[in-house]
Amino acid sequence: MITADNLSRVYHMGAVDVRAIRGVSFAIGRGGFVGIMDASGSGKSTLLHVLGLLDRPTTESLTVDGVDVLALSEREQTRFRLDRLGYVFRDYALIGELSALENV
Q1: In this predicted model, what pLDDT tens digit does every residue of 52-61 receive, in sequence order?
Q2: Where are the domains of the chain?
Q3: Is the separation of the CB atoms in 17 and 10 below 8 Å?
Q4: What would the pLDDT profile of 23-43 be if each residue is shown by its tens digit?
Q5: Which long-range contacts (CB under 8 A, 24 or more apart) does 73-80 make?
């Protein structure tokens, strides 16, 4: 199960704060399937980067299978990603000569 509570991500660009995601809360049960759709620039990629432990939220509450993944060290997060998470990037990161299975 993945549980997020009030996730936010703010990027500081000089004097400007860019709020990429704001107050996102949800729970996805084991084996659940979720689609994320919205307009370009709405924060979908940022949310996926946070869920994949590739980026840290500004406000922090994210658990995966009961583990507070944001409390893990960077090294522990890397190991957690390796052992417990899967992430398929957009087509720009796929290798055209390989099948879908080979890209995974």
Answers
A1: 888 889 887 8
A2: 2-103
A3: yes
A4: 999 999 988 888 888 898 889
A5: 77/53, 80/53
C-alpha 62/C-alpha 4 separation (Å) is: 5
Residue appearing with tokens 């996926």:
48
Which of 103, 57, 104 shows the shortest CA–CA distance to 77? Answer: 57
Tokens of 91: 């087509």
**DSSP character at residue 59:** B
Encoded tokens for 73: 């060290």
Structure-token match 């509450």, residue found: 61
Determine the 3-state secondary structure of 79 from DSSP.
helix
CATH numeric code, 2-103: 3.40.50.300
What does the block give as tokens for 35?
């689609």
CA pair distance 18, 63, nearest whole angstrom: 25
Write down the pLDDT at residue 8: 93
CB 8 within 8 A of CB 24: yes
